[in-house]
Design goal:
By secondary structure, this protein is α/β, with parallel strands linked by helices. The protein is built from 17 helices and twelve strands. The two termini are 25 Å apart.
């Protein structure tokens, strides 16, 4: 979603020539290919196909493959987005080869080094040459870490660029009719982080939350597009039958960006552990409960519709029910405008790059 916004902005600037490199870290028809099709992105110029594996093995495989790409292409800069293993691995390669690194979505910090993404953010920002910040708090974090101000530029959020650009297409999607859902008549669920799905106890707590929601609102569907790792862990921990027995729970395969955007915009309430959904739900003005003890996107709490709830909270199900009741009664907070989340962040990045290179 971030690359789509950047690709569109770069194509308006004849002085910028860019190539898209797909590492293959997230490679699944439902999790990758469909995004390229729906967002009319060109085929990647390079597809490395590194696949999965442990963090160490995956990072090493990306570095080995990407080194050959950089040596062959000899780019003036390497632009990386977000905070995944690919972000850090490609940055390390560029740094060793003395190629300037541009990091889009720099400065995000949760304060939790138990998250792999936090390590990726810290390492990438430490060696990046140009840091484009999306959340206003990022400016303070980077200053505290001693990053020179000349390297840092607040541009806003490219994820929100894509949301604004593709929302009309998303609104026309028939996914609600296909799944027999009514606008404002369902709760949307997403889970994929280690704290919620990578242990039997954590995933069982999530089952308990879903059971409580189904018991409280038996006529309100619980819509759950399942991340591949989450589905695998349901089987691994012997919990698949428990989830399947929840009468109002709709288990679905992962969906594309447009369908998921439509599902978010029409939901009554969202329960998630995702980062990007915290941002999108704020712009869509949908109440969002994030099952995490911290967030790298604090503006979604101070200015948005997001509330944090640690997944190890005592009586987690009861707390979730209380929050959903609050939203159903119209007592949820409303979103406020956020600087730079206006749909033009990628344009600002393109303009700034032309002054730097």
């Amino acid at each position: 979603m971030k690359v789509a916004a950047l690709d569109a902005a770069f194509r308006t600037q004849s002085a910028i020539r860019h190539s898209i490199v797909h590492t293959g870290q997230h490679y699944d028809e439902k999790m990758s290919d469909i995004f390229f099709r729906e967002m009319a992105l060109p085929e990647p110029d390079v597809f490395m196909g590194v696949g999965g594996g442990s963090h160490a093995r995956q990072t090493a495989a990306i570095m080995q493959a990407f080194e050959d790409v950089v040596l062959e292409m000899a780019p003036d800069a390497v632009l990386v987005v977000g905070d995944v293993n690919s972000t850090m691995a490609c940055s390390l390669v560029a740094s060793k080869l003395h190629v300037p690194i541009v990091h889009v979505e720099a400065g995000l910090r949760s304060g939790d080094r138990g998250m792999p993404e936090e390590i990726n953010r810290i390492v990438t920002d430490a060696i990046a040459d140009v840091l484009y910040v999306s959340d206003p708090s990022g400016m303070d974090f980077l200053e505290a870490e001693g990053v020179p101000a000349s390297k840092v530029h607040f541009v806003g959020n490219v994820m929100i660029d894509s949301l604004h650009r593709y929302r009309p297409l998303a609104d026309a999607r028939p996914v609600l009719d296909d799944w027999a859902l009514s606008p404002g008549g369902y709760i949307l669920l997403t889970l994929h982080r280690p704290a919620t799905v990578d242990s039997a106890d954590g995933l069982a707590r999530m089952a308990g939350v879903f059971e409580a929601l189904a018991g409280e609102w038996p006529d309100q569907p619980l819509v759950f597009p399942i991340h591949p790792r989450t589905r695998a862990n349901m089987e691994r921990f012997g919990l698949a039958d428990r989830f399947a027995a929840i009468r109002t729970l709709q288990l679905h395969e992962p969906v594309g960006y447009l369908d998921f955007l439509k599902l978010q915009s029409a939901a009554r309430f969202i329960v998630t552990d995702s980062g990007g959904i915290q941002e999108e739900s704020t712009i869509l003005e949908v109440p969002c409960l994030t099952l995490r003890p911290n967030t790298e996107r604090p503006v979604t709490i101070t200015h948005g519709t997001n509330v944090l709830l640690p997944p190890d909270t005592p009586d987690l199900a009861g707390r979730v029910l209380a929050y959903v009741r609050e939203a159903n009664e119209g007592r949820w907070k409303t979103a406020q405008p956020i600087d730079g989340w206006d749909g033009h962040a990628a344009e600002r990045i393109a303009a700034d790059l032309l002054t730097r290179f």
